[in-house]
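Handout, page 2. Input:
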Amino acid sequence: MADNEPFKPKNKDAQALKREELVKMLSEVSKKLYKRIATDRFRAKESDQIYLAYARTFSQISQTLNSCLKDEELLELERRIDELENRQKSEKVKEWN
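Output:
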């Protein structure tokens, strides 16, 4: 992968967002949007379209990240179940001997 490719991590040690961090960020965006529309008299601003485009993009990225986090959790659960099943099998073999 070339150094100028857009999706190459700049920091090898970069950590993925945790679900709790993602929820906080989404809450902040939601509060900002709600504050903007929950007025007695709404007036559209020129910058609204740009902000909404970023908010939609952020929402899509959040959904993708959440999906990846779920996949990681499922893989970890599968690994733990396999480990427990293997331990259980080895204990049964010891009992029979």
